Predict the 3D structure of the following.
Amino acid sequence: MEKRTSRSISGMRMLSALASIVIIIGGLKLAADLLLPVILAFFLAVVSLPILRALRERGLPRFPAVLLTVIVDIGILSPVVMIGLNLATEFQEKFDYYNQGLANRAEEFQGWVKEEFEYELKVEPEEVMQGIETFVVGFLGGAAEFLKDFTFVLIILIFFLTEAGGFGRKMGAIKLARGPDLSRFAEAAKDIQKYLGIKTAVSIITGVLAGFLTWQLGLDFALLWGMVAFSFNYIPAIGSIIASIPPTLLALVDQTPGVALLVLLGFLAINMLLGNFIEPMLLGRKFGISVSMVVLSVVFWGWIWGLIGMFLAVPLTILLKVALDNSTEFQWLSVAMGKHDRVVVEEDAS
């Protein structure tokens, strides 16, 4: 009888915990307009900390160092966003031309299939171009949304950077006051800093190589495709593949099928070299998140917070994993999110 009672209590706790998760997820989705600027400011602060530390080590007082760090951030981000917006707007203005070109290519391909295989193939190029238009409009919308909230993000960023030096002491004080041990979040912040730093460096190389490839092959808007490759490389697993589709179709419309194939193979080669060899070598195995969980995190955070959620999927999942580690009810979820070989090592050690 006691066993049944304990089981029912445990089951009720699990149901309550799951219901709480559903409420939290709903809250995160509904509060996106408020939370996204704060999340962006937090991750910008994490990336900017090395600049702030370097200025402080040179004897600059904290507040001037914070202002100079923010000015550096503005100097890097603003031109990139504005150039991307202008290029994407110019590309959008030529949609009718590209749409007609793709329709002609589709008609030629249909005729070839009918002649060679005596089969009536139905191709809808309008749907493809609508997909590309949605992609570019989404890119424009994300940049416009970033600019809209930029002032709010900067204000929060200044406060985060100003308080950055006292976070460690504050976490220690919370623990002394019998609060939760937040030291693992400090370690997670360092992991996120390393991840974003390496990801930014690899994304820059990806963008330069993609832009150079499309420029060498004579594609229009080579700088735009380089910037798209740079931006979407932040989305794990699928970002680089998504970034390769618009320039490949543009090459098919404006050049030849051979050039389109070269663009596709070039993007895949860049992704394989940097994404499968260089990036894992630099990142190592420290973050302990399985590959399947990385893909699922992109889908989940994309559903919660759209394109920005997809960009920040891995850092957000790292923080979520640490939070689950500190939970008695959901520590098993943290284990499930980890790599299988790490779980085996922990079992052997025990």
Summary: Confidence is low (pLDDT under 50) at residues 341-350. Residues 97 and 289 are 44 Å apart (CA to CA). The chain has 15 helices and no strands. Residues 285-350 form one domain.
